[in-house]
Design a protein that fits this description.
- By secondary structure, the chain is of the alpha+beta class.
- It has 3 domains: 72 residues, Winged helix-like DNA-binding domain superfamily/Winged helix DNA-binding domain (Arc Repressor Mutant, subunit A), CATH 1.10.10.10; 39 residues; 150 residues, Endonuclease Chain A (Endonuclease, Chain A, 2-Layer Sandwich), CATH 3.30.870.10.
- The chain is 53% helix and 17% strand.
- It is built from 11 helices and 12 strands.
- The longest helix is centred in the middle third of the chain and has 42 residues.
- The chain starts with a helix and ends with a helix.
């Protein structure tokens, strides 16, 4: 195979013209100094050391510790193995970097796409909230500004103390409050206080419901979807990211589901009055 054809094949494999020339020179001799490689090729002396560094990094050349430094070609079978391993590492590193860039790009582009193609703003579909604490803070704020109705669907209402003052204030303004939950005796006092102000509370028969949500004035829905690895473990759920939405379609689905479950739930007003 001619030197010209060999260099052409090396360039097709991904080496630069200077790297191809330098490697062919090294293959054709036992050992060469950088100056000797420069004289035997068109690689300028100012570029020869950088070219040799690249060849060593890619697995085609090695340095012989001597003065002056000398270089020799790696055996072809080893060069092929090392070069492919280098390409694989570089590709995987670049791929990880590109994946991160594309993830960030998707977040920036998606709202523009949704708004132009679906004729709706992305934030009107789903606004991610950081965590449950953020969801509860946002819920409290929305309840504080409620004017007509607040619907709450939850399992164990463990977060009641953090929203109770806002619910009391809403009830005192004449806002209708309906709470659908798994009733527990431990919350009797707090629930009795809300019930005395006009809140309607029902005990859901569902042993497990995957959505916890609060709908305010039929226009703001704050919710989280729970998931579990298996039925027996549903009290240790995996939490999906909480969201806020103003989307009429999502709000309608939640409202209809709430009303359906409300209809089959047990009234607890008598038990609360007795307390």
């Amino acid at each position: 195979m001619s030197s010209h054809h060999l260099m052409e094949s090396l360039r097709r494999a991904g080496l630069t013209s200077y790297e191809s020339e330098a490697y062919v020179a090294l293959v054709s001799a036992r050992e060469l100094t950088a100056e000797e490689i420069s004289r035997a090729t068109s690689v300028p002396i100012t570029r020869v050391y950088g070219t040799l560094d690249q060849l060593m990094q890619k697995g085609f050349a090695r340095i012989v510790q001597s003065r002056p430094k000398r270089f020799h070609a790696v055996p072809p079978d080893q060069a092929r193995h090392d070069y492919l391993a280098n390409l694989r590492r570089t590709f995987e590193s670049n791929l990880l970097s590109i994946q991160e860039i594309m993830r960030s790009l998707q977040k920036e582009v998606e709202p523009l796409y949704v708004e132009s193609h679906l004729q709706v703003k992305a934030e009107e579909l789903l606004e991610p909230l950081d965590d449950l604490q953020s969801m509860e803070s946002s819920t409290s704020e929305h309840v504080r500004h409620a004017t007509r109705e607040v619907l709450i669907s939850t399992a164990l209402f463990s977060w009641l103390p953090r929203i109770k003052p806002q619910l009391k204030a809403a009830l005192m303004k004449g806002v209708k409050v309906r709470i659908l939950m798994q009733f527990t005796e431990s919350q009797m006092r707090s629930l009795s206080e809300l019930s005395s102000l006009g809140a309607q509370i029902r005990d859901t028969p569902d042993p497990w419901h995957p959505v916890r949500g609060t709908l305010i004035d039929n226009k703001d829905l704050l919710f989280v979807i729970w998931a579990a690895e298996e039925v027996e473990r549903h009290w240790n759920p995996i939490v999906y990211i909480p969201h806020h939405t103003k989307n009429p379609g999502l709000i309608r689905i939640f409202h209809e589901s709430f009303d359906l479950r409300w209809g089959s739930a047990k009234r607890v007003s008598e038990r609360l009055k007795a307390k």
